[in-house]
Prior knowledge:
Blueprint: H1 3-16, H2 20-53, H3 59-69, H4 74-85, H5 100-136, H6 141-151, H7 153-168, H8 172-178, H9 188-198, H10 201-233
Helix pairs in contact: 1-10, 2-5, 2-6, 2-7, 3-5, 4-5, 4-8, 5-6, 5-7, 5-8, 7-10, 9-10
Amino acid sequence: MNTLGLAFQQAIDMISRGDPELVEIVLLSLRVSLTATLIASGIALPIGAATGVAKFPGRQVLIVIFNALMGLPPVVIGLLVYLLLSRAGPLGDYGLLFTPTAMIIAQTILIVPIVAALSRQVIEDAWSEYSEQLRSLGAGLTQSALTLLWDTRFSLVTVVLAGFGRAAAEVGAVMIVGGNIAGVTRVMTTAIALETSKGDLPLALGLGIVLISLVLLLNAVAYGVKRIAQRRYG
């Protein structure tokens, strides 16, 4: 058996027996990415709903900014968070650098523009369809935004899942602010990069298989949610 085949076999064995190091890395990755996604969604969904419904000065500028930030290089976000949390930075006294909290902050900043921009489009499309009906019922902008958030919840689930997938696959920003410390801040993406450079292919492949499986699962869930919404609302 060649080296790659042996490494792949060892990777499968690590997954099947629940290798402690692999499990620890996967659980930390999920904790960081899920926490960042929940925080980002709590911030971005109201912003997306308000921007999709309300007309105010600077709205188009805000939309352009959010769309532009969707393509912001993650390493730039990592650098900015690093500068904020470093000893010389304004938040340096809290000692957050090279901790999971720093990684959550970086991922949250990365996800917010994505969820805000995508949810704004979903809400705006729904608003253009139901605005007259909501106005006739006497709903104000706030009530309309809340109603549309609930009405488009299935579409918004796919938006949130897209944000989580982006966070889970991130490597640059979390490497900068987390430091890839074993047992402390090592997540799947940073571990894959490190173990590949060290030549430890079994662990890198094992984590790669888990990460790919997670991405496939997210896509399956998003597709299932979309199908449910189509059946329910035609």
